[in-house]
Structures are given as structure tokens and as C-alpha cells.
Specification:
The complex is a heterodimer of chains A (585) and B (564). With 585 residues, chain A is α/β, with parallel strands linked by helices. Chain A is built from 20 helices and 12 strands. In chain A, helix 17 links the parallel strand 9 and strand 10. The longest helix of chain B is centred in the middle third of the chain and has 53 residues. Classes of the chains: A alpha/beta (585), B alpha/beta (564).
């Protein structure tokens, strides 16, 4: 089995450009600018207090050289105490303020991200794979979060220290400043060397990380199947191979990083040697004191750490920027408005009377494989229409298009307020009440019980350990397929749409539970226009009208009796299904 | 494996397992820190011997020594970092695989009470946080060594000054440690909250189709916003603590420097140490800030690593769902008899059922919960509270779970497909490639392949979610058939498949399982019609047995269950 099967053949979700990223950050920043400015100001103050240290130490050297007595040391030392307290205090204020703004912007960003991610057209999500979205929601958001918490404040502080220290160096003597610049070419070349290599490497590292995450999600989500089919070794190998890729890349990354710091060590040596030589020359010429030369050397030594940090963070910021672009790419999807599932698009309009009109709808998931071709269909208000046909005839596709979940390649749909219960049963992790309230956030407990009554689920819900407050879904109390389906129908009742679409909703649990479910579905559809995808012919017989789909085309429609009498495809299906049962009898 | 798995044990194991790279890294990092500590000392020497005296030869000599020092510290850092990183990523990988192996333990029980997103987070983020400890420990040791070198240099410059540093640093470290305590306390709940929030996001994304069908996306978004705001609240508290901590460390370092400058300055003014000695002393005191901050960082990483190790230990210590069985148990024979005796589990109230060797038996449960309970026992997902499942006279629970499941293969209704091509999915459980094609044909999965762009080589996305429910069921059924298991249990395999295709599948399954022991838990007449006999389960007990035709004719409960 190919280990690479999970990632290839996909079109990932969009990635934002710089302008969009800036706009996405700017929006939540609005209204928090005051706090941000206060924070930055405090950080400048803290860095400035820090740069007072070397001249104060230089003062002490000059006091000693000038033989002014031991007590003359006290004043500069008090200055050092003041600088230490100011540095610490202002750093607390600055970092807290900036972290606060950062976290708030981050929260706003991730909430918007999830909102937009859930709003993405389904076809687009499937095309990109859950891994793409999951890795954006976990690792990319985490990377951006780390940058906001660590890299951005560190970078700001480091840059401030560098600027202020170089200023201090120039104030001592402009020639010290020039000497310090000896290190700059090496630093610039190193930074360029590094950033050029690091970006593709870090990108690869993130991709490998995403593949690992996806594999673990696959394995964890399907663990019962893994056990049943004895796929332990296969999945163990998959995880192992992903983990080995991650280790391999991590080691390549550290080789790059150590190369980077090695080159910066050379720059440090060149700079400090130049500053010392300059001090030697200036003291020799009598234009500088030994204390000034000492202060200059101390200034430069103090620059080692912030310079390394800032240059190193260039890359963190760059990769956080790339992650941010991937996050914002989902947040701002202006470029593909045409495939949003906005219910009022140009090919979709509200039906005035609560009925449904489908005109010339065609659909292809992949070009050249048309699953629906020019379907026309009408549902009168309150009418129940059953869609019948073999697997692959296009029933589900038509249902999702009417429900507005998928968007047709061509044609138009007129439908009002619509909700769908699909064959996919997902019980949301949380309490039963929370699960139901997804459909009607304002519903009271009485409303919930009323909806459960409609689908005949009050009995078992009341019998759960904590009733409506029982935690269900992954990690919670396990529900049977029929119970999960009843919850899905109860959600439909709570959503209370004029038009309901049911896709194989009663089929999932097998016919024993299906009888209960069929009654539940029948009750939940009462008073609504309904499109029912029928796999059991009994469902078709119970509908007002039947449409038979074959290879994406409506081949016949009419009432059950009309179609039986017509002796066409439907009659054939009916004979095959019932005949088989009859022969068993 | 006798001692209980605890957080500290996981953390200790992660370090000890990588003691080679970790100790090499510690030594090299010490060399690096010693080199860094020597930089201000050598700068002081240059000031003393060259700048103050104007001796050009001394300037060149001491600059060469300074260059050599840079060479050594650079070399030590490069190789130290590579070793430390190796220890880090290897420990990280080992823990990830331990978590995966526990999750994949055939006895199960690891996933109980945890969302898939949380499990993935444990294996990725938490393992990483523990791995980082292997980078942090050598750095911490080196920081301590650097402080030692600095102190020795200072004692050589002046005994009182050296003693001041030696005696002054431990209280400073203690302060740093105590300042870090609230940070550690915050770290656990903060990470927990974040894991919850990302679990909620993953769960909602997982159910996105349902949300869209209901128009419930806004409600789901509101729910995520609540989770995110809770996480924000926790983080904001932690950031305030973090800022206070960093600021306090800065102030403490600065005050310490002031003290060193005061004592050193007075000593220099009294002529007890040279000017170069003073420059070196204040340079060293400033240099000390870096190892001190490093210790703060190391402290934080270890705190986080400890919290993560405890979470990982919680998973590794999770009890198994079923017993291990006897490893010496022989494999299940090719064509065994299957018997259920007085089986109690969940809603089952003493089921007795025998399936002869090579027989195909249908089971119709009036209550789907009975079918689910039977499936759980047959799949050895649970060991029944009372009663037994035996295969060829040997209790299923006496087999190791893997042997039991390869003998009795349960194709559960909720089975998942995995990433890979359609053909790879079908062949996943097959020990022999021969039955794959016939299994695809029997389950009508070849028809699924025909409508996909790349046929059977089409990649299935998102656990097969790009397929319709009926298509997924056919692929999953083909996969179960291709495994060619001695006993095959099919649980509602065709519920999303149309009647016509279902009849073909029933014939295909019957053809492929001729003279093979097979149990079909379903209520579909098409499937039941091809069994030798059918057992009706009502209220957790067997209520009737007969052929499908007999039961349809004679039993009203049966009739209503299958002909709904």
C-alpha cells in the first residue's frame, strides 16, 4: 500500500496575498490601537533603560581611572538600580499589553477562520481534503499563535535594543559606530543565505507535519475498523513512516540553523575586533578615554544576543507569515464567490409559495462525468415527492442540490426555506441538548422534548444517564445508528423548514429500526414540502408522487399507481423488489 | 510494565532513552557557554594589556586568542545543537509511536473518552513538548556550567567579587524558580482548554455536511466562538503571568549587575583590581543574564513537558477494553462452527445460537440495540458480562484479540474507509490477493470503480467521503469479503443500497461464502432470503428460528421487522 496515497491529487484551499493578510490583521486591531501603542511605548522605554547600562558602567571605569575615590562609584550604581527597575517594570507593562492585543486578534482570527471554513462549499472541502483544513486549523493557527506570543514581541524588543545601542555607540564616538558596521556585510549575507534556504525547508516541514497529523486523525477516527480488520500493522507502518519523515526534516532544519549561527559568530568576532582596534587607536591618539573604549566594547558585546535573535526571527516571522497567509486564505475567499453556497446565488432563488422548481439542472463532480443531465422537477407546496433509481443514478446529487448543500454545474433551482437530513449521521460531540440546539439555538428544553416526541425519541433520551445533559458523540455516550438518525430528524423538526429533503434517512439503521424511523420521518415531514430519496420502494409508495432517475435523467414521474400501470422502469423495479420478497414468502 | 505509568516516569524515560545525545549535547553546550563566558574576559584583557598600554603586539596577540575562542564556541554550539536536537526529535518520535501503538493495541480502550482530534494532539503536540525537554536539559546544564566558569573567572579577578556571584546566584535562581511556578500551574489547564477548542473545531468540520444540510452553520460557529473565548480567557491569564515573570527576571538581573558593579567599582577604586578586571567583571555579570534567562526558558519547557508527559501517561495507562487471551491459542480453522451460549451484554438477555461449519445464518434483531450488542461481542470489542462466544468449541475470549478477529471478521455497519486507492482499500485486510477481484464483483464494488475517474485506482478522499453512502458500503463490503475470513459477520451491509443492486449483492455474497461459516445481521429480505436459516432476536433473546420464508409466513414480529 502506498504511503503517499493520502496527500497527492489534491487542490489545496487558497492562500492569501500580503494585502489580504494585512487587511485581515488590521480589522480586529481596530479599537485596540490605544493598548497597542501603550505597549510599544512601554517597550521602547524598557529598551532605552537597558541602553543606559553600558555608559553607566563606562562612568564607573572613568571614576576608577580618574581616582575619584570609592564613594564616587555610588551615583552610577544608583543609576544602574534605576535602569534595572525601569527596564523590568516597563517590560511587564509592554509585554502584557502586546500579548493581550495579540491574543485577542488571534482569537478573532481563528473564530473567523472556523466560521469561513464551515462556510466553504462542500465540493471545495472534499477537493482539498480534511487534512488541509485540519492542519490549517491546528498547526498553522498554532504557528501564528506562537509568533504572536513570542516572535513578534521578541523581534520588537530586539530591534529596539539594536537601534538604541547603535545610537549609544555613535554618541560615544562616531568611529565606534563605523567599526561596528564591519560586521554588517557578513550578517546581511548570512541572513540572505538562511532565509533563502529556510523557507522551502520549513514549508516542507509543515507539509510533512500535516500529513502526519492527518494520518493520526485517520487512524484515531477509524480505530474500531482498524481493530476489526486487523489493520494494526498497516496503520502502525503508516504512522511510523510519517514520523520518520518528520524526524528527517527536523534534522535537516537543525543543520541549517547551526550553519546560520556559525556564520554569525564570524560576524561577532569581526565586529568586536574592529571596535577594540578602534578603541586602541582612539585612546592612543588621546581622543577617547579607556572608559569610553570599555563602554563601546560592552555595547557591542551586548548586541550579540539581540542581533542573533532578530536575524533568526526573520525566518520565524516569515514562516508565521506563510501560515497566516494560509489561515487568511480561508478567511478571505473573495476570489471564489462564484462557488459559495450562498442560497441566493444567480442560479438559486426563493420560491414564493413554499414549493420547489428545478429547471435544467446538470451536474458533474469531475469534468466529463456528468451525474445529472438537464433535470426538471416540480413540487407543489406540501407535496411529498419520492426520488427512485439505482445507485449512481444521481438521486443524492439532486437532493443535495435542491437542499443548497451542493451547487449545480448548470440550471436553476427555486426553493424557499429548506433543510436536509442526509445519509451521513454525525452526532456532534457535546450534550444531547447542545446537539439539538445546533438546529435551533434559542429552543427551550420544552421545545427540545416536543421535537423528540415528534420523532418518538423521548423514551430513550429520558432513559440516558443524564437525559438531555448526557454527553454524546465521539468520546461520549454511544448512540445506535437509529438513535443518531432520530436525533437528526429531531434537528430537522427544530429547524422547522418549509421544504425538507430526506436522503436515505430511514435506510441507515436497517429495516427493523427503519420502521420506527419511517414513522419518525413521516411525522417530521408533516406540513412540509418534501423531497425524499427512496431506496425502499415502500417509501416511494407512501409518497404523493414518484420520479424515477436513471443515469442522471428523470425517465418517468407520476403517482405510484400511475407508474405501476404504465409498466415502465418503476414497475420493473417494483416487480424486482417485491417479487423477491414474495418468492421468499 | 508492572509499575504504573505516570507523568514523571514518561518524562524520565524520554530523557534516559536519549542519554547519549543528551549528555554529548550537554558537554558541547558547556564548551560553548565557557567560550561565550571567556569573550568578556578576553575583551577585558585586550583593554588592560593593549588599549590601556598602547602595545600593538599585545593587541594582535590577544585578538588572535579572542578569534580562537570564537572558533571553539562556534564549533561546540554547532555540534551541541545537532546532538540536542537529535535527542529531542527522537524522544518526540518515540513517544508519538508509543501513543500510536497504545491506540493501535488490539485490546483497545485507549480512545474511550477522547475525541480523535485530542488523540492526534496527544501524539503530536504533547509528544513534541516532552521531546523539547531533551533540548532544554543540556541547555540548562550548560547554563549552570557557564555560571560556574564566570564565577571562577571572577574569583581569579577578586575573591570577594567571585564569592558575591557564587553566593548571590542561588537566591536569584530560587527567585526565578518560584516566579516560574504559577506559569507551570497555568500551563496544564491552558493546554487542556486549547485542546478542547481544537477538538470542537475538528468535530464541527467533521460534521460540516450535516450542518450545511440543516443550515446550522451559524449555530456551530457560535458554539466554536464560545470554546475559543474560553480558551482566550485562560491564555490571557497565562500571558499576564508570563509578562510578570519575564519582567521580574529582567529587573532581578539588572539589580544583580548593579550590585556587582558597586562592589567591583569600589574594589577597583581602592586599587585591589585592575581596570581590565573591572571591565571583565561587569562584562561577566552582564553575560550571566543570558544563562539566567536560558534557565528561565528551560524551567518553562520542563514545566510544559511535565504537564504533557502526565497527559501522555494518562493515555498509556488507560486500561484495555478486553482481555489479552492466551497467546498460544491456535488460529481459528478454515471452516469452523460458531456458537453463542447464554450471551449477556448490553441489551442481550441470554442469547443461544449455533452456526454450523459452513452454514450461513441470518440474525434479525427487532431492536437494533440487540444487533449492536451482538456485533460488539463477536468483534471482541467487549468481553461479555455473562455467557460465551465459542468458535469450534474454544471461547473467543481465550484467543488474543487479533487471532479472534482474524478468525471472526466483523464487518460493522459503521466501518470507515482509509486514504488510499479504492483497490488498496478493498485489499487492505486480504492476506492473499486472489479473492480481491471476486470480492469486488460480489459486492458490486466494481460498479463503483466504473463510475470513478481513475477506476479502482481512484484515490479515496477523507475516509471515502467523496463516495455516496451506498458506494462506501459496497467498498467496505468488498473489503470484508476479500479478507476471506473463516467466520464472516456482516452487520447491515446494504442499508444505503438500492433494492436491485442489493439483490445482486445478496447473490454475490451467497456465491462467495458457499460452504463458509457466515452470519448476516440484517433486516433486508434480499440478504435474508439467501441464508440457510434465520434467527429472530426479540428483547435480547432468541424468539424464533426457521428459514426466511417460514418466518415471513408464520411470525408476525418477524414479518414486521423485515417487511417494514
Amino acid at each position: 500500500m502506498s504511503a503517499d496515497a493520502g496527500t497527492s491529487g489534491r487542490t489545496i484551499l487558497p492562500v492569501a496575498d500580503t494585502r489580504a493578510v494585512r487587511a485581515a490583521i488590521g480589522r480586529p486591531l481596530r479599537g485596540r490601537r490605544g493598548v497597542l501603542a501603550l505597549g510599544l511605548l512601554a517597550l521602547v522605554g524598557s529598551a532605552a533603560a537597558g541602553t543606559l547600562v553600558p555608559p553607566l558602567l563606562g562612568r564607573i571605569v572613568d571614576v576608577v581611572v580618574g581616582r575619584q575615590g570609592a564613594d564616587a562609584v555610588t551615583d552610577p550604581v544608583l543609576g544602574l538600580v534605576g535602569a534595572a527597575l525601569a527596564q523590568g517594570l516597563l517590560a511587564v507593562v509592554g509585554m502584557a499589553a502586546i500579548a493581550r492585543v495579540g491574543e485577542q486578534v488571534l482569537a478573532a482570527l481563528r473564530e473567523r477562520f472556523v466560521a469561513r471554513a464551515l462556510g466553504l462549499p462542500l465540493a471545495r472541502l472534499e477537493q482539498a481534503g480534511a487534512g488541509d483544513l485540519t492542519s490549517r486549523v491546528t498547526s498553522d493557527l498554532a504557528l501564528v499563535g506562537d509568533a504572536v506570543r513570542q516572535a513578534v514581541p521578541d523581534m520588537a524588543r530586539g530591534a529596539l535594543v539594536i537601534v538604541l545601542s547603535l545610537g549609544g555607540l555613535a554618541l560615544l564616538d562616531w568611529r565606534f559606530f563605523v567599526a561596528a558596521l564591519v560586521a554588517v556585510p557578513v550578517q546581511v549575507l548570512t541572513a540572505r543565505w538562511y532565509v533563502r534556504r529556510s523557507s522551502p525547508l520549513y514549508r516542507e516541514q509543515r507539509e510533512v507535519g500535516g500529513a502526519q497529523q492527518q494520518q493520526l486523525l485517520d487512524t484515531a477516527g477509524g480505530i474500531a475498523t482498524v481493530r476489526a480488520l486487523d489493520l494494526h500493522d498497516d496503520h502502525g507502518d503508516r504512522v511510523r513512516s510519517r514520523a520518520a519523515d518528520v524526524v528527517d526534516l527536523a534534522l535537516r532544519v537543525v543543520r541549517l540553523q547551526t550553519g546560520f549561527f556559525g556564520r554569525l559568530n564570524l560576524a561577532e568576532f569581526l565586529g568586536v575586533a574592529a571596535v577594540l582596534a578602534t578603541g586602541f587607536a582612539l585612546v592612543g591618539a588621546g581622543t577617547a578615554t579607556v572608559g569610553t573604549a570599555s563602554a563601546a566594547a560592552l555595547y557591542f558585546i551586548n548586541l550579540f544576543t539581540p542581533i542573533n535573535e532578530v536575524l533568526f526571527l526573520l525566518d520565524t516571522l516569515q514562516s508565521a507569515g506563510a501560515s497566516l497567509a494560509r489561515v487568511v486564505g480561508v478567511v478571505d475567499r473573495d476570489e471564489d464567490t462564484e462557488d459559495t453556497d450562498d442560497a441566493d446565488g444567480h442560479d438559486r432563488s426563493a420560491s414564493p409559495d413554499g414549493g420547489v422548481r428545478v429547471r435544467g439542472v446538470s451536474h458533474a463532480y469531475t469534468t466529463g462525468h456528468e451525474v445529472l443531465s438537464g433535470v426538471d422537477l416540480d413540487l407543489a407546496p406540501g407535496e411529498r415527492l419520492a426520488l427512485v433509481g439505482a445507485s449512481g443514478a444521481g438521486k443524492t446529487t439532486l437532493a443535495t442540490i435542491v437542499a443548497g448543500v451542493h451547487r449545480a454545474s448548470a440550471g436553476r433551482v427555486e426553493v424557499g426555506d429548506v433543510a436536509m437530513v442526509s445519509q451521513e449521521v454525525h452526532v456532534f460531540a457535546g450534550t444531547v441538548a447542545e446537539d439539538l440546539r445546533l438546529a435551533a439555538p434559542g429552543a427551550t428544553d420544552e421545545d427540545l422534548w416536543a421535537a423528540l416526541d415528534v420523532v418518538d425519541a423521548r423514551g430513550w433520551v429520558a432513559g440516558l444517564p443524564e437525559g438531555l445533559r448526557t454527553v454524546v458523540g465521539t468520546g461520549g455516550h454511544t448512540l445506535t445508528a437509529a438513535q443518531a438518525q432520530q436525533l437528526a430528524l429531531a434537528r430537522l423538526v427544530l429547524a422547522d423548514p418549509a421544504v425538507a429533503v430526506l436522503d436515505e434517512a430511514t435506510a441507515e439503521a436497517g429495516s427493523a429500526g427503519a420502521r420506527i424511523l419511517e414513522a419518525a420521518a413521516d411525522h417530521s415531514l408533516r406540513g412540509r414540502t418534501a423531497l425524499v430519496v427512496a431506496h425502499r420502494l415502500s417509501q416511494a409508495a407512501a409518497a404523493d408522487r414518484v420520479a424515477v432517475l436513471d443515469a442522471g435523467v428523470v425517465v418517468e414521474h407520476g403517482t405510484h399507481d400511475e407508474l405501476l400501470a404504465a409498466g415502465g422502469r418503476y414497475a420493473e423495479l417494483w416487480a424486482a423488489g417485491v417479487g423477491r420478497v414474495a418468492s421468499g414468502r | 510494565m508492572t509499575a504504573p505509568i505516570t507523568g514523571p516516569r514518561v518524562l524520565r524515560g524520554a530523557i534516559l532513552d536519549q542519554r547519549g545525545p543528551v549528555s554529548a549535547a550537554a558537554l558541547l553546550f558547556m564548551g560553548h557557554q565557557a567560550g561565550e563566558a571567556l569573550v568578556p574576559v578576553l575583551v577585558g584583557t585586550v583593554v588592560d594589556r593593549a588599549v590601556a598600554s598602547g602595545d600593538t603586539g599585545a593587541l594582535l596577540r590577544w585578538l588572535a586568542v579572542l578569534g580562537l575562542d570564537f572558533l571553539v564556541l562556534s564549533f561546540c554550539y554547532r555540534w551541541g545543537a545537532r546532538r540536542a536536537w537529535l535527542g529531542d526529535v527522537r524522544a518526540d518520535q518515540r513517544l508519538r509511536l508509543l501513543v500510536a501503538d497504545r491506540l493501535l493495541d488490539p485490546r483497545g480502550g485507549a480512545e474511550t473518552g477522547r475525541l480523535p482530534g485530542e488523540l492526534a494532539n496527544l501524539a503530536v503536540a504533547d509528544a513534541k513538548r516532552v521531546g523539547v525537554v531533551n533540548f532544554a536539559v543540556p541547555l540548562g546544564l550548560a547554563a549552570l556550567a557557564a555560571m560556574l566558569v564566570a564565577a571562577v573567572s571572577l574569583v581569579r579577578i577578586s575573591v570577594p567579587l567571585g564569592l558575591l556571584i557564587l553566593l548571590g546566584t542561588p537566591p536569584l535562581l530560587l527567585v526565578v524558580h518560584f516566579l516560574g511556578v504559577p506559569l507551570q500551574r497555568r500551563s496544564g489547564p491552558e493546554q487542556e482548554r486549547a485542546a478542547r477548542a481544537s477538538g470542537v473545531a475538528a468535530d464541527l468540520v467533521d460534521g460540516v455536511r450535516v450542518l450545511k444540510g440543516l443550515g446550522a452553520v451559524p449555530a456551530a460557529v457560535a458554539r466554536y466562538e464560545r470554546a475559543s473565548q474560553e480558551a482566550l480567557g485562560a491564555t490571557l491569564g497565562a500571558t499576564r503571568v508570563q509578562a510578570g515573570y519575564q519582567g521580574a527576571v529582567l529587573a532581578a538581573n539588572g539589580l544583580f549587575l548593579a550590585l556587582v558593579a558597586l562592589v567591583g567599582g569600589r574594589l577597583a577604586a581602592d586599587g585591589q583590581i585592575s581596570i581590565g578586571g573591572l571591565v571583565a567583571a561587569v562584562g561577566l555579570a552582564q553575560f550571566l543574564i543570558t544563562p539566567l534567562q536560558m534557565l528561565g526558558w528551560v524551567n518553562g519547557r520542563i514545566a510544559q513537558g511535565r504537564a504533557s508527559a502526565a497527559r501522555i501517561a494518562g493515555l498509556l495507562a488507560a486500561g484495555p477494553a478486553v482481555a489479552g487471551g492466551d497467546p498460544a491459542a491456535p488460529p481459528v480453522p478454515h471452516r469452523p462452527a460458531l456458537a453463542l451460549h447464554d450471551l449477556h451484554h448490553g441489551s442481550l438477555r441470554g442469547v443461544d445460537l449455533e452456526v454450523g461449519a459452513g452454514e450461513t445464518v441470518g440474525v434479525v434483531a427487532a431492536d437494533p440495540a440487540d444487533a449492536a450488542a451482538l456485533v460488539a461481542c463477536l468483534a471482541r470489542e467487549v468481553d461479555p458480562a455473562r455467557g460465551t462466544v465459542t468458535v469450534e468449541g474454544r471461547a473467543l475470549a481465550a484467543h488474543p484479540p487479533r487471532t479472534a478477529r482474524s478468525g471472526v471478521l466483523v464487518a460493522s455497519h459503521g466501518a470507515e474507509l482509509f486514504s488510499g486507492t479504492l483497490r488498496e482499500n478493498v485489499a487492505a485486510a486480504a492476506r492473499d490477493p486472489a479473492p480481491v477481484a471476486s470480492a469486488m464483483a460480489a459486492a458490486q464494488a466494481d460498479q463503483v470503480a466504473d463510475v470513478l475517474p481513475d477506476g479502482a485506482e481512484t484515490l479515496l478522499r477523507e475516509q471515502g467521503r467523496s463516495l455516496s453512502g451506498g458506494q462506501r458500503q459496497r467498498v467496505a463490503l468488498a473489503r470484508a469479503l476479500a479478507a476471506d475470513a473463516p467466520v464472516l459477520v456482516l452487520h447491515d451491509p446494504t442499508t444505503a443500497i438500492d433494492g436491485v443492486t442489493e439483490i445482486r449483492i445478496a447473490e454475490g455474497v451467497a456465491g462467495l461464502r458457499t460452504d463458509r461459516t457466515t452470519l448476516v445481521l440484517a433486516t433486508s429480505p434480499a440478504l435474508l432470503a439467501v441464508t440457510h436459516r434465520v434467527v429472530l432476536v426479540v428483547d435480547g433473546r432468541v424468539a424464533a428460528t426457521g428459514t426466511h420464508a417460514e418466518l415471513v409466513a408464520s411470525h408476525p414480529v418477524y414479518r414486521s421487522a423485515v417487511l417494514g
